[in-house]
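Example (one chain per record):
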Amino acid sequence: MDTVSRLVVLSPDSPYSPSYLARAASALDLGIGIKQTCFGILLEGPEETVKKAVTTLRSIDPLHIYTKMRAFPLGDARRCRAQRGAARPGFYFLEREIDLLPLFSKALACAEASKEAPTIPERRAVPPCRFRKIMEETL
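Predicted structure:
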């Protein structure tokens, strides 16, 4: 069985806390590794079991709980701040992603309220002569 690690991240505007999420994951009693962090929890275990945990946890608050893959196992020395003495590589990017989550939550809430799939205009290539004209007008 393949072992996977996933981050389960709370949007800053979530009414839940990382400790609540950790307790909820622990209560599932799935025998997977759980580590609480400042932004949510890390889960590690067999892929199907972790998927089941993520599905259950996201159902608590689907507009404010997000997940993504983590490339390293829990406690990996290459990512452990305690052993590195500084923020782990990628932490500042993750921090920025988390700052943007309330925007995703609002967009999902709007989509859910309208019950309509957003329409995306068809993308077409701009003909070279039209592009040249646009460039000349802007310069």
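Caption: The helical segments are 18-27, 47-60, 81-84, 91-114, 128-138.
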